[in-house]
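Morning run. Coffee first, then this:
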Amino acid sequence: MINIKNKHIEFTRGDSGSLSFKFSRNITSSETVLFTVKKHISGEKIFDKQEPGTGTDTITISLTKTDTNIPVGNYFYDIRIISGNTVTTPFKPRRFTVLASIGDNTL
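And here it is:
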């Protein structure tokens, strides 16, 4: 399950899925979008994902079951747009909550 409200993300532990972010401008092919998740804002990263710009104002970040197979709890994420030596953070860090699941992801 993925739930996004006011840029706060809720994700069920061990699920895979996609997150789409719309920006106020097009992200060019020479830019990279970096999505980072940390337990604490100033702590070590839990995981990050990089996506190249597509020339549109929307970027989709794909998360695997490995990415979200982390302990249940509250984390933080942010997005950075990188173009050469220029880094832009389009919004402040937001909450990334990993929820418990009943199943064990095996068949």
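The beta strands are 2-5, 8-12, 17-27, 32-38, 45-52, 56-63, 73-83, 86-88, 94-99. Good start to the day.
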